[in-house]
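User: Okay, second chain of the day. Same drill as before: sequence in, structure tokens out.
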Amino acid sequence: MRVTTAALCKPLRQGAKLLCTILLCTLLTAQSAAVALVEQLGSADNNTRTEAFQALQKLRSPEVAELLTLKLAGMNAASQQLGFLLMEQQSMDIARGQWLSMVAADSPVLRAAAAAHLWRLQDHSHATTLATALLKIPPQAVLMLLNFVWGIDDPQVLAALRRFVARGQPSFVVKNALQHLIQVENPRNEATVLAANLLLDTEDIGLRVIALASLIAMGETQQSMALAEILIAKPEQTEQVIPLLLKAAKLEPVLVDALIQRLKDAPNNFQVTQIASLLQIHASEKTVAVLFKLFDQEDPKIQSAALSALTNIPSALDKKRLKLMLTSTDASQQLIAAKMLRRMDDTSGLPYVLDLLTKNVSRKTEATKVLAEFRSRQVGLPLINLLDDPEQPVREAAWNGLQNLMRDLFPYRQFDFAKAGYEPNSNARGQGIAMLRAWWEAALK
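Assistant: Same drill. Structure tokens below.
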């Protein structure tokens, strides 16, 4: 039977045609899905747009960037913010092209966002567009755009930002704008000082404390008494001013005393952390004394925040203090003291950690992690025993700690931990634990 070339090629042509059809259908389906998801991204419903955002993150295609460029102008501010995040996740070349097309858009939000992102890509030629667009954006998009321009030091952009330091603006907008200006203007700009001064007689207490803190950050320390009086009378304003005061080269004693009082009376762990981060720069000894007194608070979160703040202050926790903390009835103090002493090559905290493992179930995971930091043969068997603890986080901490311990103590022994067959999440852990125990005992011989 004679077979012609045409006969042989026919099924190949049919196969190729079928493959092209499949690929085209797949492409069209993907494009259709992208269109639908971008529409959902513009939804007023938070759950709908969040789901669309998560799905679009997985697509990462040029088509998504093109669709966003077309649709973002008509979206609400929350949807626009998610859309800009998606644009940032595109490759640099794709993103640059879309930002360039967006910088000429009718929407001032799109123009400002595009110009700001192009600045990040080292294209500084759109600063004028950015500055003029900033002054036209709707109130609901102001904060988003202020975040986009953070760190940009072009004089035109900074002048536009000063326009937000004004009465009638929400306090969070004024605060954000002033933080930006103080951060990038070095030396200070007298126009920014003037803008803050114009807010000092406003009836809006929030704006006034922001203005006072900003002026102090810019060296106008004569405003310290006024701010101190407000913080004493209105302690809820403290959170507003700390980020601004962190930029101050000097704090006057009257303001330090007011902040010390606020630290003593801090209502939550966040304020303890926030105020202590500022005071440790300007009054470390007074701060240390107050933080130790906070150990008497009933709120364990405040106690923990005080301890964490102390660890950030050089020499606040010397060996004498740490050893005193070991004898405390507070498990948090004992664990931090044991951990810090160990880092000073002092293992006197080990017995306290071992004791906590048997007596304080609520701190067992944390205690296991601290135990694992002791590079000692004494902790091997306790860690192996913890591999069968009822709580998964404890088992995982013990498993991670044991592997590091065995590698450190026996660097020339090659332990195949995968071969042991132990998994913290498995219900059948006995055989793996038995093998690990046998390894440990053999290694000690």
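Residues 331 and 362 are 10 Å apart (CA to CA).

User: Thanks, on to the next one.
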